[in-house]
Amino acid sequence: MPDTAGSTGRTPETHVIDFRAAEQLLAARDPRGAVKLLDQVIAAHPENTAARLLRARAFFAAAQLRPAELEFTVVLEREPDNAFAHFALARTYERQGRGDQAKRHFRLAAALDPNPQYLKAARFES
Which PROSITE patterns would you find in this protein's record (predicted)? Predict the structure, then answer.
């Protein structure tokens, strides 16, 4: 019988537990701990967009802006209508001093979702 848990002994259930634990770590302001757990989840399930979005948020919270940018970009390749991912990518660009790219994604976020925070960041009047 094949080993469905792989060489790490991890199962789909433990990946769900790791994902939930990573959410808790991020909420508790431990983004690096969250990234460590999510690395394992994504290695086993690279198609998991929710895990990639959470890891992007953790990278951002840890001020690891280039990895955050890459993860948000992967999420948007898979879900181009994800307003939050556009907004978060814009914030990432903003923190990197890349205002033109940030403005584009702020506006995309606001166009996809009229969330007041997105609309304010989009600065459509300017």
Answer: TPR
Position 113 pLDDT exceeds 80: yes
Count the alpha carbons within 13 Å of 102 in the hemisphere toward its beta carbon: 14
Pair 25, 60 in one domain: yes
9: pLDDT strictly greater than 60 = yes
Number of domains in the chain: 2
3-state helix, strand, coil in the chain (%, to 5): 70, 0, 30
33 to 24, 50, 118: CA distances (angstroms): 10, 17, 29
Q: Are residues 60 and 87 in the same domain?
A: no
For 44, the domain range is: 11-64
